[in-house]
Write a structure and sequence with these properties.
The complex is a heterodimer.
Chain A: H1 2-28, H2 43-50, E1 58-62, H3 66-71, H4 76-83, E2 107-111, H5 117-130, E3 137-142, H6 149-160, E4 165-171, E5 174-175, E6 178-179, E7 200-204, H7 208-223, E8 229-234, H8 252-259, H9 263-273, H10 279-302
Chain B: H1 2-15, E1 20-22, H2 23-37, E2 41-45, H3 61-65, E3 70-72, H4 77-89, E4 93-98, H5 101-104, H6 108-115, H7 118-121, E5 131-136, H8 151-155, E6 161-163, H9 168-180, E7 185-190, E8 197-199, E9 213-216, E10 221-225, H10 228-241, E11 247-251, E12 254-256, H11 260-270, E13 273-280, H12 285-297, E14 306-310, H13 319-325, H14 329-340
Parallel strand pairs in B: 2-3, 2-4, 4-5, 5-7, 6-7, 10-11, 10-13, 13-14
Antiparallel strand pairs in B: 1-8, 6-12, 9-11
The chains are: A alpha/beta, B alpha/beta.
């Protein structure tokens, strides 16, 4: 049982890492455009938390969300094709890297304005509570989003009406180039729900097993009808904020320290030490992840582009100069 | 549709036997019917519940439908409007009340970045059946921060629909249609129209949500307006008629889309047009309407289509100055006379 779980987590993180590397390669070749925010270093958060969620749960994320979509079951082909802007992408080529959607997977989108996931998530939570549904919503955000008004507004409403929302902070310490100590008077994000009485917990976001366990515990709280919970996962991004950012504001020492805590290496070493997996097992997972991503790139390259500029702005096509049908 | 109207008629009968309603009563009735007809509908906003709504529009609904369907919110415009968007994505049909358009400036992220974009960004996977009601306009000495008009800001956003009812009949039907619509709809209400009384007939056929309406038939000039300025134009038309100048008055009713064909039809007849708007002239809604008309029927015109609009100022507190800042019937008459010129006896 434990072995299967470890194997799953390691494969998920290998796939996530390889997927993001391939996205970067395709970006440098000009095949992926726009803003591209990559996830290496943070894999344990999306993998650990989303593997603890039920298939019926809803997920809302900010714009660094390729891995979250993959963890919910959106195929690597559909995510890569979206980065390529193709009709086979999970948003039909209309969203791009920052706006992945999949209704089938209850994946309610990536959003590119910091702090937007809070009101959307409480809206989903409100509907679930009103309908007395057993499902919950997982709301992701970065530590930088905590200083937006929507964080405080939404946590207040979530707590006031006991909405089934798990707020998951991916604290990678930097809002682009500004480190948390330079933007927040209180740097322990899990404490910042206190004004609304939202309980919080801090977990090592570089340890997938710890994130998984903490998410299970937090979800239990949310499912119990006790209202929202705030889980802070302290992590680190190995790359810049986006492809346009070299990350030069961080010291080499800091980078080296954090890279030594790489969540993939962590789990790999532990799996070998504990005898959960063999070198051959791991090599096979690595190979499978590479093949899957290579296939996703091939699929994206061969996919057709979308062609209808005016599709799906409204339910029915609407001419702004012809009000009466 | 006929069956739905019969059902509406049965519901209205005991509570509202009158054939006249105030605009707020018509809106209240529309919400009552929408809440009764569809479990997915819920209403939220500041003071919409126990208090009954700042302009009485939600009066009685809290007692009837309970707190989950008529929800008093904290003062958090961006987040409770965004809450509406989130609920709409997963099956809800929320009706958000933002007390005034001035407060809606705090909710523009939810309206413009979320409600208007998600359907398109998701490749059509998600619909956003959200209604956002908001009251605007210059009322009575509420000063600069409580007197704004927001038409220009929301009209420029693909993905939104915008209606602006001026009568109880339109208030009932346009709000009813907005709640049934699968796209986000902004319902622009006017603070001075809530207590305006007018004829109401639930059996009358509902015009399409976005059509314009001819409120007075004329021959010499077409006056185009919406919300409170429709009444200003009707007053101006009365004054002009004394001098045998017959103005046609069109109530636009909808600002996105606009019913350009009806405007074109009218101006083909009158060859002159004036857009009367309560908002500032510069980069306002009237600029779009005039531009669209001149692109379409330039050679039908006897002269440029004019705009009578608010002064380019923040709204002052002083009552006389406030009145001077927005169009009245005299200003419309003056503009028309300028176009039509001295009439030969």
């Amino acid at each position: 049982m434990q072995r299967d779980l470890i194997k799953q987590f390691l494969y998920d993180m290998l796939l996530a890492r390889r997927f993001e590397e391939a996205a970067a390669e395709q970006y440098t070749q000009g095949k992926v455009a726009g803003f591209l925010h990559l996830y290496p270093g943070e894999e344990a958060v999306a993998v650990g938390s989303l593997r603890a969620a039920e298939p019926g749960d809803y997920v809302v994320t900010p714009y660094r969300e390729h891995v979250h979509a993959l963890m919910r079951g959106v195929t690597p082909n559909a995510v890569m094709a979206e980065l390529f802007g193709r009709a086979t992408g999970c948003s039909g080529g209309y969203g791009g890297s920052m706006h992945l959607f999949s209704a089938e997977h209850r994946f309610l989108g990536g959003y590119a304005i910091v702090g937007e996931t809070f009101p959307l998530a409480i809206g989903v939570g409100y509907w679930l509570a009103m309908k007395q549904s057993p499902d919950v919503v997982l709301c992701y955000f970065g530590e930088g989003a905590v200083n937006q008004g929507t964080f405080h507004e939404s946590l207040n409403m979530a707590a006031l009406w006991k909405l089934p929302v798990l707020f998951i902070c991916e604290n990678n310490r930097y809002q682009i180039g500004t480190e948390i100590h330079r933007n927040s008077a209180v740097t322990e994000v899990y404490k910042r729900g206190c004004a609304s009485g939202v309980p919080g917990k801090h977990v090592d976001g570089m340890d997938v097993l710890a994130v998984h366990q903490a998410t299970q515990d937090a979800l239990q709280h949310v499912h119990s009808g006790s209202g929202p919970f705030l889980l802070e996962c302290e992590t680190y991004r190995f790359r810049g904020h986006s492809m346009a950012d070299s990350g030069a504001y961080r010291s080499a020492l800091e980078m080296a320290e954090l890279k030594a805590r790489d969540p993939l290496l962590n789990l790999r070493n532990r799996a070998l030490q504990e005898g959960w997996l063999s070198e051959d097992d791991i090599e096979a997972l690595f190979k499978k992840a590479h093949e899957t991503v290579d296939e996703a790139v091939r699929f994206a390259e061969q996919s057709p582009p979308p062609t209808d500029l005016y599709k799906d702005i409204y339910t029915q096509p609407l001419d702004v100069y012809r009000g009466a049908p | 549709m006929t069956r739905a109207r019969d059902a509406d008629a049965e519901m209205i009968a005991p509570a509202h036997p009158r054939h006249e309603l105030m605009v707020w009563e018509a809106l209240n009735l529309a919400l009552d019917h929408a809440l009764a007809a569809d479990d997915a509908v819920f209403v939220l906003g500041e003071d919409v519940g126990l208090y009954g709504g700042s302009y009485r529009v939600t009066q009685g609904l809290y007692a009837k439908y309970g707190e989950w369907r008529v929800r008093d919110t904290p003062i958090s415009e961006n987040s409770f409007t965004g809450l509406g968007v989130g609920a709409a994505l997963v099956g809800g049909r929320p009706v958000v009340e933002i007390t005034t358009v001035n407060f809606a400036l705090l909710a523009l992220d939810a309206i413009i970045n979320l409600a208007a974009k998600i359907r398109y960004m998701s490749g059509g996977q998600f619909r956003v059946p959200l209604v956002v009601r908001m009251a605007g306009g210059v009322a009575k000495q509420l000063a600069a921060q409580h007197s704004q008009r927001l038409e220009h800001t929301v009209m420029n956003v693909p993905g939104l629909r915008i209606v602006a009812p001026a009568t109880p009949q339109d208030a009932y039907w346009q709000l009813t249609q907005a709640v049934r619509e699968d796209d986000p709809v902004i319902v622009l209400e006017h603070e001075l129209l809530y207590f305006k009384k007018g004829p109401f007939d639930i059996h009358a056929a509902a015009p399409p949500m976005h059509s314009a309406a001819v409120r007075r038939v004329g021959a010499h000039v077409t006056l185009i307006a919406w919300q409170r300025m429709v009444d200003v134009c009707l007053q101006a038309a009365d004054l002009l008629a004394q001098d045998d100048i017959y103005a046609e008055v069109i109530d636009l009713r909808s600002l996105r889309p606009i019913d350009l064909p009806l405007l074109v039809e009218s101006i083909k007849k009158t060859h002159r047009g004036v857009v009367v708007e309560e908002d500032c002239k510069f980069a306002g809604a009237g600029a779009e309407i005039v531009a669209a008309l001149q692109e379409t029927i330039f050679f039908e015109l006897d002269g440029p289509i004019l705009r009578v609009a608010a002064a380019d100022v923040p709204t002052p507190y002083n009552g006389a100055l406030e009145a001077a800042s927005i169009p009245d019937a005299a200003a419309v008459v003056h503009a028309v006379r300028r176009m039509v010129g001295p009439r030969e006896e």
